[in-house]
């Protein structure tokens, strides 16, 4: 048992020290580190064991610049739309030493429990199947992030790439077939400034035994208040510096 606990502690050391950072020091990531990271992604669970993912490692600085610029443009677009979302500075993507584009194959929705008869019921099952697919790709992506953290890198999970316009710009550069979707970008590298630990809920706030603990249910108004007063703090501040 002592062996298992020690293994759990090593694992938790990686989990705790996986921290988002949005600016990296310039450095060269060895090719085998990309392979070590994606070897972890390969072992992830997925619905129907479909493994509906593919990872494109981007090494060409010119392509990185185009991808980085797409995020900066999207950031400016959100500002113009007055979305009110505290969008980060995406310039760090351009110079991220490690950049992996995550591709999902949504056609695998057909491999999950669906009717495929275009009925209303089929629509509901397909909605659920889409969630299965997204969870599958996220599970694999998370393995990659933890592997990068285990290698001592700071990581950055970016979903802001999902818009159709960005896809049209980036897919041809990477030779990604039209049938597939780019759903994420993973950046990693040595951090420019030390990473900081963001606020995490306490264990008792996320855990119930047998029945959902009603004191942890948030009303719509609670959530609106959280977005107004707390979201920006927990996104961009060290948890020890939140009042
Ligand atoms: C599904 C998902 C989507 C995310 N999308 C973005 C994103 O588009 N841009 C960004 O800067 N960070 C993004 N993040 C990073 C989160 O902001 C970050 O994980 C969160 O603030 C908690 O910080 P931590 O990773 O240091 O624990 C995303 C993270 C996840 C898991």
Give me the count of strands.
Answer: 4
Nearest-integer average pLDDT: 93
The CATH topology of the largest domain corresponds to NADH Oxidase
**Distance between the first and last residues' Cα:** 40 Å
CATH architectural grouping of the largest domain: 3-Layer(aba) Sandwich
What compounds are bound to the protein? flavin mononucleotide
Radius of gyration using CA atoms only:
20 Å
How many helices in DSSP terms?
9
How do the strands of the widest beta sheet line up side by side?
1-2-4-3
Series of secondary-structure elements, N-terminal to C-terminal: HHEHHEHEHEHHH
Helical content band: 40-55%
| The number of domains | 2
What are the segments in which pLDDT stays under 50 over at least 5 consecutive residues?
none
Question: Would you identify the CATH H-level superfamily of the largest domain?
Answer: NADH Oxidase
Overall morphology: globular
Proportion of residues in extended strands: 5-15%
- Oligomeric status: single chain
- CATH class category of the largest domain: Alpha Beta
Q: From the helix content, strand content and strand pairing, which structural class follows?
A: alpha+beta
